[in-house]
Amino acid sequence: MISIRGLKKTYGRTEALAGIDLEVEAGELFAYLGPNGAGKTTTIRILTGLTRLSAGTAGLNGHDIEKQALAAKRQCGLVPQHINLDSELTVAENLDIHGRIFGMPKALRRERIGQLLGYVELSDRRDSLVKQLSGGLKRRLMIARALLHSPRILFLDEPTVGLDPGIRRRIWALVKRIQADGTTIFLTTHYIEEAEFLADRVAFIDRGRIVAVDSPAALMERMGAWAIDQVGDQGMETFYFTSRQEARDRAAGQQTEFTLRRVNLEDAFLALTGKRVK
Ligand code: ATP
After folding, report:
1. What is the rounded distance in angstroms from the CA atom of residue 133 to the CA atom of residue 138?
2. pLDDT tens digits for range 206-242
3. Which atom of ligand 1 is found nearest the CA of 158?
4. Rounded distance, CA 135 to CA 276, Å?
């Protein structure tokens, strides 16, 4: 559904993307995980037609993003990182404008707006001004807007940044439902637990390069299953083990304080890039 070959992007002397190769299957929920400045937003902006690539090719559902730009654009819906709703208009008016931009006839717009507001549980706020909505509700409205023209692929750029944990989980449930209903999802995040919880596969991206692509479970297995964090002479050190017993044996007789825990995706990211995601 998404096919990327040798994708590069330079801004002056900054190499934002240094050659990306990636295939995302239809129906997959794919997470793009990396620290600030890794190149996540740049990738999404290129794929959704908001900025030009410098080299390479990319296709969405078989449509080349450069040669068949309009057809490619119709394949995707985008929820950008920053809220870009029209705050002086109502919820329904924001959706209606989007439908007009995509050339949807009036009857279809009305039908889809009703459906989508129900889907994201915003029907009762239909006539509220957007400036009266909380951050979580605005996020849901942006998701409804991105889905209005029935795209095959939904791009979510840091969908839960700045939201509190309860609201973040509601967004996660909504994202899972959208996938279950057949939409391919490409999501960027720097929240480890978001990628771990949501994604079928994760790409680790660092300084414009993909350093690993696999399922969260397979990426974590590369490290083992259990970890011990210990404060040593070199600062915090982490040791990895395949079994809990092995970890316990290592911990027994240690003088310094330690924490025994499950391996997480951050361990794998750290091992591959030498840096933490946050
Ligand atoms: P964040 O989580 O901070 O959004 P990101 O992984 O999405 O990070 P990008 O926004 O894609 O990273 O940025 C990748 C690199 O390209 C960074 O070094 C950034 O400073 C640079 N960059 C991005 N957009 C521009 C631009 N319009 N002009 C110049 N440099 C840019």
Report:
1. 6
2. 999 999 999 999 999 988 999 998 887 778 888 899 9
3. 2
4. 27
Q: How far apart are the C-alpha atoms of 73 and 3, rounded to whole Å?
A: 14
* Mutate which of 7, 10, 11, 207 for ligand 1 pocket (most atoms within 8 A of beta carbon): 11
Return the SS3 of 27: coil
Ligand 1, atom 17, residue with closest C-alpha: 37
The more confidently predicted of residues 256 and 64 is 64
**233 CA from centroid of ligand 1 (Å):** 36
Domain boundaries, the chain: 2-218, 224-262
Q: How far is CA 41 from the centre of its chain?
A: 10
Q: What is the pTM of this model?
A: 0.92
Q: Which CATH number fits domain 2-218: 1.10.287.110, 3.40.50.300, 3.30.1330.10, 3.40.50.1580?
A: 3.40.50.300
Largest interatomic CA distance in the chain: 73
Sign, Cα dihedral of 265, 267, 273, 278: positive
User: Strand ranges (DSSP E) for the chain?
Assistant: 2-11, 14-24, 29-33, 55-60, 63-64, 76-79, 153-157, 184-189, 201-206, 209-214, 226-232, 235-241, 258-262
Q: Which of 40, 53, 54, 156 to mutate to test the pocket of ligand 1 (most atoms within 8 A of CB)?
A: 40
203 lines ligand 1 (CB under 6 A): no
Vertex 16: Cα angle to 11 and 17 (nearest 5) = 125
Ligand 1 atom with least separation from CA of 39: 11
Residue 152 has pLDDT above 70, yes or no: yes
Question: Would the CB of 39 count as within 6 Å of ligand 1?
Answer: yes
